[in-house]
Design the sequence.
């Protein structure tokens, strides 16, 4: 799965100076791609750069995307704080107000205030004109569909999901089509859910959408475990390991929790993930481990960190013990840095 589109450190390295609008654009792009850590970095920088540089729609989009990223990581308190900042935009006409209601609705749904969520989503079509009702820009029907089903209104939810899918199909953009297929598989019990999810994954082939892809993989794995035999279980395990790797790298604890519950049902042990791995190391151990994983020698690490070679050796011995590895060659994989 893809990682971030382009990190802020890469931008700094190339000497580019980004204004609030550029930072927002990069944040939105990374959020769509599923690079949540990079998205949060850009979006918080955009917010700090001063909202005066951004228009109302941009500010509402920034806050709504921040809410989504915080929720993806299970950071409810932080999401609530950002969600409160959407208040001044709720009564604005057009896309500004619609975007704010979408963000507030997603926040309410996440904390089980489903009726309030449905109320926010119901306001959106009254605020949008035909030209602004873009399923790619603001997929409110999928969110409203899920809220409707949670309130027991399955027929309404299915109709909303199908309407979204029809509009997305007419535009021919892969991401909203895949989102619509996933939503329909969730809300309509009378469809071939596994086929819809497989079609959604096919739509995302080659598209940078790691978070949505991992969510669909997890959904499909759950269905396979319920309905299939050994072959289905093998496929489910492959899907879950893929989702687990992504969710762990991006610290998406709610998604990782779902994955691990399914793995536990299969009798499979969870794989160590980056956030948990790093949490076990001190700051000094993390610095040494990361440099060692890039291939630097102990002497080169000591020179870069201005410490003794003996100190580097001491830190590495603690890193090996904590990570349960025995050689330098295993560091990169243990830290989630790849080969």
Sequence:
């Amino acid at each position: 799965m893809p990682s971030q589109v382009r990190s802020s450190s890469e931008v700094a390295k190339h000497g580019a100076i980004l204004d609030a609008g550029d930072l927002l654009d990069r944040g939105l792009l990374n959020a769509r791609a599923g690079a949540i850590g990079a998205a949060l970095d850009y979006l918080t920088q955009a917010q700090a750069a001063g909202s005066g540089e951004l228009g109302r729609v941009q500010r509402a989009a920034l806050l709504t995307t921040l809410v989504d990223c915080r929720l993806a990581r299970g950071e409810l308190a932080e999401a609530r704080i950002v969600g409160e900042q959407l208040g001044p935009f709720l009564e604005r006409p057009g896309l500004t107000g619609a975007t704010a209601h979408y963000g507030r609705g997603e926040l309410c749904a996440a904390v089980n205030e489903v009726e309030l969520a449905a109320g926010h989503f119901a306001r959106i079509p009254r605020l949008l004109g035909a030209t602004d009702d873009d399923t790619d820009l603001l997929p409110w029907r999928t969110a409203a569909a899920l809220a409707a089903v949670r309130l027991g209104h399955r027929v309404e939810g299915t109709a909303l999901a199908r309407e979204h899918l029809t509009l997305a199909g007419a535009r021919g953009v892969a991401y909203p089509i895949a989102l619509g297929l996933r939503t329909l598989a969730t809300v309509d019990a009378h469809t071939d859910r596994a086929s819809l999810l497989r079609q959604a994954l096919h739509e995302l082939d080659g598209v940078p959408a790691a978070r949505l892809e991992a969510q669909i993989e997890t959904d499909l794995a759950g269905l396979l475990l319920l309905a299939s035999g050994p072959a289905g279980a093998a496929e489910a395990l492959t899907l879950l390991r893929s989702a687990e790797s992504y969710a762990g790298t991006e610290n998406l604890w709610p998604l990782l929790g779902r994955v691990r519950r399914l793995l536990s049902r299969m009798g499979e042990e969870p794989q160590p993930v980056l956030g948990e791995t790093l949490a076990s190391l001190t700051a000094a151990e993390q610095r040494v481990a990361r440099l060692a994983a890039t291939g630097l020698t102990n002497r080169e690490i000591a020179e870069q960190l201005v410490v003794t070679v003996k100190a580097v050796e001491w830190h590495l011995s603690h890193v090996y013990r904590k990570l349960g590895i025995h050689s330098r060659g295993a560091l990169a994989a243990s830290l989630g840095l790849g080969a």
